[in-house]
Amino acid sequence: MITLALSKGRIFDDTLPLLRAAGIEVLEDPEKSRKLIIATSRPGLRVVLVRASDVPTYVRHGGADLGVAGLDVLLEDRDDAGAALGGGGLYRPLDLQIACCRMSVATRADFDYAAAVRQGSRIRVATKYTHTARRHFASKGVHVDLIKLYGSMELAPLTGLADAIVDLVSTGSTLMANQLVEVEHILDVSSRLVVNPAALKLKREALRALIDAFEAAVVARA
Ligand code: ADP
Ligand code: MG
């Protein structure tokens, strides 16, 4: 049995067409069913639904053989933190080029970001992405007071909790609705296939075939 870890929402939705291109149908809609383990039309392949940030954990510890996780999540992942694009116990064969967005710094329009990030100054930044934010501001020589949040980061500059946020942006409409402006682009984010290295040895043929099918689907879409 091969177990693929996906998170509900955009990663699940964007992975479906790639699976479909490989001739694989997922046999239940996670928005309608409460099931956490879903069969597919391919015998021997099942999907498990986990929190986006739990995908690396499931795959690393063998709860799933492979999974799909955003680069944002992989860069925050405990064992992966230092290794920007490296392994951290996970084999990363493929950029699936789905769930694409960017990680950016945003502030209130009336905040002077340029002045705040002058060498040697201090800034208060609220974010879910503390590792990435810390690395980013360290590379600029800016002292940063990081405030860890788990959601609704847009609220932080509006309430005076922080000067800036580091968050994912795609269209920018959420920022705009909250009168925030994107002041710096940190990195481009897309979702990656991650594979458990031990599983790759033990189930080589089946996993290789699945990875190759994902790759063919990505190439076909590009
Ligand atoms: P959660 O709210 O549990 O983090 P999401 O579905 O919002 O789940 O995000 C899952 C992944 O999708 C993120 O880790 C990121 O890689 C990607 N993502 C998040 N926000 C956006 C966005 N606005 N546009 C495109 N991709 C996004
Ligand atoms: Mg979200």
Question: Beta-strand percentage?
Answer: 25-35%
CATH architecture descriptor of the largest domain:
3-Layer(aba) Sandwich
- What general form does the structure show? elongated
Q: From the alpha carbons, calculate the radius of gyration and give it in angstroms.
A: 19 Å
Ligand types: adenosine-5'-diphosphate, magnesium ion
Number of strands: 11
Number of structural domains: 2
Please report the first level of CATH classification, the CATH class of the largest domain.
Answer: Alpha Beta
Terminal-residue CA separation: 30 Å
Number of helices: 9
CATH fourth-tier homologous superfamily of the largest domain: Periplasmic binding protein-like II
- Named CATH topology of the largest domain: D-Maltodextrin-Binding Protein, domain 2
The profile of the biggest β sheet is:
6 strands, mixed
Overall structural class, as computed from helix and strand content, comes to: alpha/beta
Helix content class: 25-40%
Mean pLDDT: 94
Unreliable residue runs: none
Order of helices and strands: EHEEHEHEEHEHEHEHEEHH
